[in-house]
Amino acid sequence: xxxxxxxxxxxxxxxxxxxxxxxxxxxxxxxxxxxxxxxxxxxxxxxxxxxxxxxxxxxxxxxxxxxxxxxxxxxxxxxxxxxxx
Length: 85
Prior knowledge:
Number of helices: 4
Structural class: mainly alpha
CATH class: Mainly Alpha
Low-confidence stretches: none
CATH topology: Non-ribosomal Peptide Synthetase Peptidyl Carrier Protein, Chain A
Shape: globular
C-alpha cells in the first residue's frame, strides 16, 4: 500500500469516526490542536487502524504521534515489519 493510499484510508477513517472533512487531513495537520481529537479519540483511531491493517499497534509506538504524517509513519513501519522477507 502506498503512502497516498494510506492517507486516503486515514481521511476516510477520520471522516467516518469524527466527521473531519477530508480536506483538513494533511500530513502536517496536528491531530489534537487542528483536528480536535482527544485521548479517547486517539484510542478509537488506533482500534480502527488495527482493524484496517490487521496488525497490532503497540501503545509505545503510538505515544509520540502528533500529526497525520506521524500516523502514516507508524502504520507504514508496522506494515513493513510484517512483510515476508
